Amino acid sequence: MTRKFGLIGGGIMGEALLSRLLERGIYQPSEVIVSEPQPSRQAFLQQQYDVTVTIDNSLVFQQAQEVIFLAVKPQVFSAIAQELADIVLAEHSPLVISILAGVPLHHLEAAFPGLPVIRAMPNTPATVGAGMTAICLGAYTNAKHQQKAAEIFSAVGEVVEVSESLMDAVTGLSGSGPAYVSILVEALADGGVAAGLPRGIANQLALQTVLGTAQLLHESKMHPAELKDRVTSPGGTTIAGISQLEKAGFRSALIEAVKAATARSQELGK
Ligand SMILES: NC(=O)C1=CN([C@@H]2O[C@H](COP(=O)(O)OP(=O)(O)OC[C@H]3O[C@@H](n4cnc5c(N)ncnc54)[C@H](OP(=O)(O)O)[C@@H]3O)[C@@H](O)[C@H]2O)C=CC1
Ligand SMILES: O=C(O)[C@@H]1CCC=N1
């Protein structure tokens, strides 16, 4: 049986990628093997996607001819590297793609000697095809590997290539960003409830405001400051709200959040 795509770690991000790759026909279920330790998760992945699921990472490593996709927590990376250390791949040289926060190319390349490695940082909107992924290329990659990674991550959203020195900052911004934006949506809705709106309507207003604003910025290519100015009437409601945001350090809180997440990504790679 020829497997092309091996996924190590069938959790949130692994499944997000897998589901879109299958949906897009980039891989057929019979070409995919997934390793996952949790029995209930194994059963779910097998039933939902009709892929081969195993508990054995070495089987994935040995069988996947084209891509080994690492989607485990960074904290289990060294255990997996040890587990796979003695396996020699004689007949194929798969591209290893890692989405592990913080784990640098030189650690990945040491764990998979001689194999082409790409470090990537996607985000959870990948689940609905609206992801943002940054990739950086390892020393043993060529244009074909670059194209393969671009094909995989294009299936779940937009892709940019950056130098590795920027990957921790990418992680702090777009990798972690969906959590910050979710808090923003939740807090906006809470504000609406505080101002007297029923919860359901407040949630709908908050979500559509964030979605619509992002879409408008995206489609118009308008600078965010310009859109802010367009909303803000002299002596009006918006400037009253913005004054409060500035007083509470809203901008600074977001800047510091991205910096803290970047620093944590750097720590995870040590
Ligand atoms: N969540 C996010 O928004 C993003 C996450 N990432 C990165 O993606 C990676 C995965 O994150 P996420 O999907 O959120 O995490 P999850 O915990 O949802 O997924 C990890 C999966 O790996 C499984 N696993 C644990 N140990 C092993 C092992 N030894 N061999 C094989 N599988 C194993 C876990 O099983 P079990 O649950 O039983 O432990 C789990 O199903 C992380 O490195 C993270 O930094 C990158 C971008 C965004
Ligand atoms: O929180 C984390 O560590 C991962 C990496 C980016 C998003 N989630």
What do these coordinates show?
The chain is of the alpha/beta class. The protein has 2 domains: 165 residues, 3-Layer(aba) Sandwich (Rossmann fold), CATH 3.40.50.720; 92 residues, Orthogonal Bundle (ProC C-terminal domain-like fold). Helices cover 53% and strands 15% of the residues. The chain has 12 helices and 8 strands. The protein has an 8-stranded mixed β-sheet, sandwiched between helices. Helix 7 crosses helix 12 and helix 8 crosses helix 9. It starts with a strand and ends with a helix. The mean pLDDT is 96. The structure holds NADPH dihydro-nicotinamide-adenine-dinucleotide phosphate and (2S)-3,4-dihydro-2H-pyrrole-2-carboxylic acid. NADPH dihydro-nicotinamide-adenine-dinucleotide phosphate binds next to helix 1 and helix 4.
Set out the fold topology.
Blueprint: E1 3-8, H1 12-23, E2 32-35, H2 39-49, E3 52-54, H3 57-63, E4 64-70, H4 77-84, E5 95-98, H5 105-111, E6 117-121, E7 131-137, H6 143-154, E8 157-161, H7 167-175, H8 177-194, H9 199-220, H10 224-231, H11 237-247, H12 250-268
Parallel strand pairs: 1-2, 1-4, 2-3, 4-5, 5-6, 7-8
Antiparallel strand pairs: 6-7
Helix pairs in contact: 7-12, 8-9
The chain binds NADPH dihydro-nicotinamide-adenine-dinucleotide phosphate (NDP) and (2S)-3,4-dihydro-2H-pyrrole-2-carboxylic acid.
